Amino acid sequence: MPLTQESELPEKYYQTIKPWFDENCEARFWTLKDGCEIHYRFVQHPEARGILVISSGRVESALKYSELIYDLYHEGYSIFIHDHRGQGQSSRECQNPHFGYIDSFEMYVDDFESMIDDVLLPKLSGAAASEDATPVVGLPLFLVCHSMGSAIGALLLKRRPQFFAKAVLCSPMFGITPPLPPWAAHALVYIGVRYNRLVRKKASYFFGQTDYAPSAFYKNRLMSSEVRYRIFRELYADMPRLQLGGVTFEWLHASLQGMAEIRAHAHKLTTPCKILYSGADTVVANKDIEQVVADMPNCESVCIPEAMHELFFEKDKFRKPALEKLLDYLAR
């Protein structure tokens, strides 16, 4: 089945993709040891060539990925995706549910590892008590990540290098492009975190950050596909539970530490990997991506010229070649 095209999306999304997603992608919650409830979706292909484990970006949810999951399923893959803690339908970490917060990126990695070990693998083996599907034996697991999810995925690959057969990291967050010089941004983040600890405040927004407020399409830095952007914003308007605001000092502090660890230890990321990144990205720093690519021993990369940050939701002329390269790489 060919990949979904923008021209058919206005009707296909609501008449075909969303109903298929709601009916076929099992929706469950898993409670972690610390009490955090993680929302996940799983769809098992009857003739799967492999299992894709998706790690999404900041602000995102499994529901946002319905078009991508629909397309990849019809390419012959079973798919597992969860909402990271603090976003989507998973438990929020702060009293203000809009705060983009995490104490440490290792928490994301711990959660991801637990979701694989305690939820996905029992499903694939047929060991889950409520699992009726036929056990899947011998199929490869592939990691597919976007943006912040790529940083989380890279840290998981460092921890468990033999777990995935291959990984595809899209627009990876190995460095960000702050509006201030890096030294100034680091100093402000450090001061903000120390102040909040001093006054015993769990978190507060970084300067200029607010509760969820959707940007007009012409102002957005994510994608150049107007129809995909409109569907994304309509979904979040219809389900306010998915909405997430800006980043806190604490999230920035944790992300800077996580990205620094990836850059410093890229040579330890030995899992075969393909990195796709965008020529017109203004969210993550391409120079940091290129540094990590150069240091990873089994990595190849492709830059999609003129594309914006979210390749999985871009215009067809950017999304199609990105997904074709992803599929070709996994099929080798």
TrEMBL record:
It comes from the Bacteria. Keywords: Hydrolase. Residues 47-316 form the Serine aminopeptidase S33 domain. The keyword Transcription does not apply. Pfam families: Hydrolase_4 (PF12146). One of its GO terms (molecular function) is hydrolase activity. InterPro entries: AB_hydrolase_fold, Hydrolase_4, MAG_DAG_Lipase. PANTHER family: PHOSPHOLIPASE-RELATED (PTHR11614). This is Alpha/beta fold hydrolase. It comes from Brumicola blandensis.
